[in-house]
Specification:
homodimer; Four Helix Bundle (Hemerythrin (Met), subunit A); about 0% strand; disordered C terminus; transmembrane helix (chains A, B); transport (chains A, B); CYB561/CYBRD1-like (chains A, B); transmembrane (chains A, B); heme (chains A, B)
């Protein structure tokens, strides 16, 4: 896949950006824009921040190792960028969650009853556990190289699994928001097409990222010695 | 993971069965049961058949190689079971799709407008392509062992990717059906809890299956020479 590596990364970036732009367009143009005042415009921050942090930024953080390691960049810089992108994603995700809870509380809407919220809490909990384990085992200097080697495959597996769960949570959330926004869905007005397209772009982004991460490691330009975990 | 292999397979089976039972209970007990007469009871066949075929049966078909190859079973029997389970899944899936189209047409409901349907058609198309390629390359005797070896990693990757997309489609469909069934969702009546639990079980099933399929191949009891593709 060496010839396909750069085109696939560019495809992933295009799909990830399309996801963020389509969700932003839906919330910003068709559902009233953004505010921080308990109104539905505060809610609108939630989908934009969650897709940007838990899909686009998270997906890019997972690809950083494939893109940069082995290229002439110090390994600690790659690790710091991976961790930094995930910490930035965590901050944006926290603001995105605060927006929806504040909006619900300000309007007397119950929290945490929907499949979207159950999935979301499971995903965010696993994401935070993965972040803490990753920081503790790979970034801090305490873990033995044996522990690092034995944890690596779990970290990679759950990295992709949690990204996929994050995407599934977004899809369910998009469907929920379409129903709450009370458009005539079956007539496919512009916001319905934009919402459907955003969902499809999210799925295509995650499949492309997973393909880049798991397929034919040896042929990628970032081919390197994976046993060097420091 | 050798010690964990059997418990993980049992966990996957429990989660897969729970998914089918919960969806069956929701449709059979709370949404009026089943029929083939254009009524909403015909629609009810759709969720049950799709989850049973495209999640439970498909997930099991993917695990058959891990569970049986290397055990003292002829390889052709394992291949035939894998292909047979997927062909049975295809038949059940076709009936499940016929149920929803007939129900829509009988009631003047438009087809193919929702994110659920867009995702579903993408997933089913990729599933059928994967089935045709799998049959043509692995089961029929025409392909060279070189072609088989080079296609195997794509077949495995897309097997898991399509299973994940199938699960995501089910989740979006569950959310859609909750809204169309007009319960007071936020009060979490029994069918809402059952539907949420079914969604969570589907996610947990697919994550467990993906873990079984991708992690630590060497330590599984089905450790074998993967280069023997005949």
């Amino acid at each position: 896949m060496s010839k396909l590596f750069v085109p696939l990364v560019l495809l992933a970036e295009a799909l990830g950006l399309a996801s963020c732009i389509l969700i932003g367009l839906w919330m910003g143009k068709y559902l009233g824009g953004f505010a921080w005042d308990g109104s539905s415009q505060e809610f609108n921050l939630h989908p934009v921040l969650m897709v940007t942090s838990m899909v686009f930024l998270y997906g890019n953080a997972t690809m950083i190792y494939r893109i940069f390691t082995g290229v002439n960049v110090p390994r600690i810089a790659v690790k710091a960028t991976h961790a930094g992108a995930l910490i930035l994603a965590t901050i944006m995700m926290s603001v995105g969650l605060a927006a929806v809870f504040q909006n619900h509380n300000a309007n007397g809407i119950p929290n945490m009853y929907s499949l979207h919220s159950w999935l979301g809490i499971a995903t965010v909990s696993m994401f935070l556990l993965q972040l803490v384990l990753g920081l503790g085992i790979f970034l801090l200097p305490f873990a033995s190289s044996q522990l690092r080697a034995s944890y690596l495959s779990s970290h990679v597996f759950f990295g992709i699994a949690i990204l996929s769960m994050s995407a599934a949570t977004c899809l369910v959330g998009i469907m929920e928001k379409i129903f709450f926004s009370e458009i005539k869905y079956s007539a496919l007005p512009a916001p319905a097409i934009i919402a459907n397209a955003a969902g499809m772009a999210i799925v295509a982004f995650v499949v492309t990222v997973a393909y880049i991460l798991t397929t034919d490691k040896a042929a990628s330009p970032s081919n390197r010695n994976y046993s060097n975990l420091q």
